[in-house]
Ferredoxin (Breznakiella homolactica), 65 residues
Amino acid sequence: MAITRVWLDESEGDCISCGTCEAVCPEVFSIPDKMVVNDGVDFSQYEDGIREAIEACPTSVIKAE
């Protein structure tokens, strides 16, 4: 199933700005202060990177659907 939405969910924990998501998939993620999803990204082009970033996130705050 295609990823259509990616977001930061800090309801269970906080982003620690470790940079892992940006290192794994810089086309989608940036860390200016906390993780942000870059505007205008076609998530379908980076699904593998998004999934890898979600799995690698030490605080599990990256979500996608």
